[in-house]
Give the backbone structure.
Amino acid sequence: MAENDIEGRLTLYVERSPEVAVVQLKGELAAGVTDLLYRQVKELIPEVTRIVLDLKELTYLDSSGIGMIVRLFVSAKSAKCSLQLTNVGGRVRKLLGITDLLSVLQVIGENNLRM
């Protein structure tokens, strides 16, 4: 499991299998720390066919964070890699709903069922 941290604001834990990478986000995905997520996931895109962003321990998300998720979604899709979200909490779900991104991004739940 790889771990990356930016000043205690955002910590990423990466678990990999040959085809799937799960990136657990802990803390804030906001302006000033989004590049950490971008660099980590961008490296994974050509190496796996599926990336899951686990948002269970995400405590804050702003417009920069939303933009980064969309940027990664587009990058993954163009490389024929799927980017999925799991454990999307109420606040994050509300933000994604307001921006109508729930209709674009793939949110999965327990047992990898699309929600």
User: Anything to note?
Assistant: The chain is about 30% helix and 35% strand. The chain has one domain: 2-112.
